[in-house]
Amino acid sequence: MAIKSDYHMHTSFSGDSTAPMEQMILKGIELGLNSICFTEHMDMDFVYEQPSEEGMFDLNTDSYLYDFIKYKEKYSGQIQLLFGVELGIQAHLKRELALYSKSYDFDFIIASSHICNKKDPGYASFYEGRSEEEAYREYFLSILDNLKTFDNFDVYGHLDYVVRYGPTKDAGYSYEQYRDILDEILETLIEKEKGMELNTGALGYQLRDFNPCMAILKKYHQLGGEIITIGSDAHTPSAIARGFQRAAEVLTECGFRYYATFEKRVAEFHRI
Ligand SMILES: [Zn+2]
Ligand SMILES: [Zn+2]
After folding, report:
1. How confident is the model over 133-164, as pLDDT tens digits?
2. Hey, what long-range contacts does 16-22 have (CB within 8 A, 24 or more apart)?
């Protein structure tokens, strides 16, 4: 396997995973990975559909850090473990996000849009009463708002995440349809020296492409973007590094020769 680092995964510290951290580590070792970065969910002011879910994505970062340090030492020499977070970005959380992201010594921060203008694109109600294109457009525009709000992150996560959930998913979706907004997002990322992740988690959603799609990756590269991390978005050990062989082919086809890893927020590049 050309890619030896999985930079997006969740354990039981995330509200939607029950995987023990140690099992994720053991699987990473079994797969022969050099490093794995935990990116637990921290989604402040998340919009919960069920009252029982309230607070599900408020990360107990102290407990997470406690276990992380324990395992980092235990498995040193076998695999490098990195302390990351997947931070849900919403424009109105400007101050909270700035404060939180500085409060811990993270190795890596993924900025992700899971909530768009106080609505969850994972639910059918997000698409009701309008065209799929209008809904996708609103999602991409909210990323631009987010980028004006917050920049203490390393990569933007699964940029076209919304196409996992639309009525026809990515069947009628193309980069060209949203080129005006997407190009502005990519230009902003490059200007701020931020990267993008190639998220292979789409394998679980029957999509044509990973997130983001190849046309977006190609455009990011054409515009001079160089910082790409690869993440499986695993919530179970069996999903770690899933699709990484294909990810290496996709990146090569898009013109990339290197992928990035981060330690203490500093990028290091590795040949694909
Ligand atoms: Zn995510
Ligand atoms: Zn995730």
Report:
1. 999 999 999 999 999 999 999 999 999 999 99
2. 16/41, 16/56, 16/57, 16/235, 17/235, 17/236, 19/234, 19/235, 19/236, 19/237, 21/67, 21/68, 21/71, 22/71
> What is the 8-class DSSP label of residue 102?
H
Which tens digit of pLDDT belongs to each residue from 69-91?
Answer: 999 999 999 999 999 999 999 99
The rounded Å distance from CA 35 to ligand 2 centre is 17
At 39-65, the pLDDT tens digits run 999 999 999 988 899 999 999 999 999
Ligand nearest to the CA of 231: 2
Q: 5-271: what CATH class?
A: alpha beta
Terminal Cα-to-Cα distance of the chain (whole angstroms): 9
Q: What are the sequence ranges of the domains in the chain?
A: 5-271
Q: What are phi and psi of 222, to 5 degrees?
A: -60, -40
Compute, in angstroms, the gap from residue 66 CA to the centroid of ligand 1.
Answer: 23
Cis peptide before 167 (omega within 30 of 0): no
Residues with CB under 5 A from ligand 2 (ion): 86, 233
Percent of the chain clearing pLDDT 70 (strictly above): 100
